[in-house]
Write a structure and sequence with these properties.
It contains 16 helices and 17 strands. The protein is an alpha/beta fold and 429 residues long. It has 2 domains: 123 residues, Urease, subunit C, domain 1, CATH 2.30.40; 293 residues, Metal-dependent hydrolases (TIM Barrel, Alpha-Beta Barrel), CATH 3.20.20.140. The strands form 4 sheets. The chain has a 7-stranded mixed β-sheet. Strand 12, helix 10 and strand 13 form a beta-alpha-beta unit. Helix 5 packs parallel to helix 6, helix 6 packs parallel to helix 7 and helix 13 packs across helix 14. Bound molecules: guanine and zinc ion.
């Protein structure tokens, strides 16, 4: 039996960075028809109710029916060390991240953390995440098994490191290639799961390991590749010292076959003009991680400038360098960084980034992130009056954007009334 969800609907038929807020499709008393995991119709509530009297009704009143949020870069194994105090990137990795990641050879521990992470994400309306795992194949099996049990579309991969990391977290060039290939063959394309080739970042891989992963990507160019790029000045100086012949940080990846259109480059804050031009030429995706960039003190990503150049950009929490699982809090941080750079991002741009924009960055723009027939039915139902403070401000709004913006700036998991995954409401808390 089909399900018919009633509420305000919001989605995008184009990119608001190009077309402006007019790219939004908003229906005040709208409806979404869902059947067998897919959206089969989107329109006016009255019309769809009359056309589908057989459908099971879910009346969400004035709440907003949105595509589920898409978190384009996270580290699920860092769930338990989120909000760790007082370090910059390299110190933060050594003090908090690496000791925690060392535990993920234990399959039961990995599965418990994956379950916690994905449940918290679902409670925040996030239906897709692209995650780094750890060096241990068990951590990948745990992540994909957990997502499969929830029916989620996720992406992930084994994080490869063969230097500048503790023994417990190091593989080798050959093991990185062999393990990644075996995991890719086991998981890529199973159910709603995609394997992502995952060198952590240039400083923790030898040239041999980067070359091995570049070769693997050439064998499986349909898989995305994720890594980090130009997050902090100290990191960039380290890359320069380790790879003195490279023109810049991006050139290290390119030299080893790790620059292609379906490459996902996290952070990308301190880019040179050459790097920007080359990323644009290739059409690779840059992933903005705003709560992480403020929390670890990394810098102010040039979202407006990069979008104006036509770069592909996604939005992400970067758990646990990021300080919140909520894509609403992430949108708020992106807005604030935009303000610090002198550009007020429009709510349409923020919402698009958290849904269709991130989906496109991940190469999934034809399956998720949009309310339209044929798309997968991953939905976030968002209460636009979830706290007294938000409710009183939203009540003053006389347009969609004025009633939505208080939830972007002040909302969190309390604003998520329900999350639908693959055509089914997930069990509530
Ligand atoms: N650079 C390399 N590894 C990491 C990580 O785990 N988090 C962040 N924020 N940056 C990184
Ligand atoms: Zn990261």
């Amino acid at each position: 039996m089909p399900d018919l969800l009633l509420g305000q609907t919001l989605s995008f038929s184009g990119d608001p960075f190009v077309e402006g807020p007019g790219a939004a499709r908003h229906v005040e008393r709208g409806a979404v028809l869902v059947e067998n995991g897919l959206i089969t119709a989107v329109g006016e509530a009255d019309v769809l109710r009359r056309a589908h009297p057989e459908a099971r009704l879910h009346d969400y009143g004035r709440a907003l029916i949105s595509p589920g949020f898409v978190d384009a870069h996270a580290h699920y194994p860092q769930t338990a060390i989120i909000a760790s105090w007082g370090k910059r990137l390299i110190d933060w990795l050594d003090s908090y991240t690496f000791p925690e990641e060392s535990r993920f050879g234990d399959a039961a521990y990995a599965r418990a953390v994956a379950d916690t992470c994905l449940d918290v994400m679902l409670a925040n309306g996030t239906t897709t995440v692209c995650s780094f795992c750890t060096v241990h194949p068990e951590s990948v099996d745990a992540f994909f098994s957990s997502a499969r049990a929830r029916g989620m579309r996720v992406l992930g991969g084994k994080t490869c490191m063969d230097r500048n990391a503790p023994d417990t977290l190091r593989d080798s060039a050959q093991a990185a290639y062999d393990d990644s290939k075996a995991l890719l063959r086991r998981w890529h394309g199973q159910d709603r799961l995609s394997y992502v080739i995952t060198p952590r970042f240039a400083p923790t891989s030898t040239p041999d390991q980067l070359a091995a992963l570049g070769a693997l990507w050439a064998e499986y160019p349909e898989c995305p590749m994720q890594t980090h790029l130009s997050e902090q000045p100290e990191e960039i100086a380290w890359v320069k010292a380790l790879f003195p012949r490279a023109r810049d940080y991006l050139d290290v990846y390119e030299a080893f076959g790790l620059l292609r259109p379906n490459g996902l480059y996290g952070h990308a804050i301190h880019l040179t003009d050459r790097e920007r031009a080359r990323l644009h030429e290739v059409g690779a995706a840059l992933i903005h991680c705003p709560t992480s960039n403020t929390f670890i003190g990394s810098g102010l990503f040039d979202l407006a400038g990069l979008a104006a150049q036509g770069q592909r950009v996604g939005l992400a929490t970067d758990i646990g360098g990021g300080s919140d699982f909520s894509m609403l809090r992430t949108m708020a941080a992106a807005y604030e960084i935009g303000q610090l750079r002198g550009t007020a991002l429009h709510p349409a741009q923020l919402w698009w980034l958290a849904t269709a924009g991130s989906a496109q960055a991940l190469g999934l723009g034809d399956r998720i992130g949009t309310l339209a027939p044929g798309y997968e039915a991953d939905l976030a139902i968002v209460d636009l009056a979830s706290t007294p403070a938000i409710a009183q401000r939203a009540a003053r709004g006389d347009s969609l954007w004025e009633t939505l913006f208080p939830t972007i700036m002040m909302g969190d998991d309390r604003a998520i009334r329900a999350t639908w995954v693959n055509g089914r409401p997930t069990p509530g808390p």
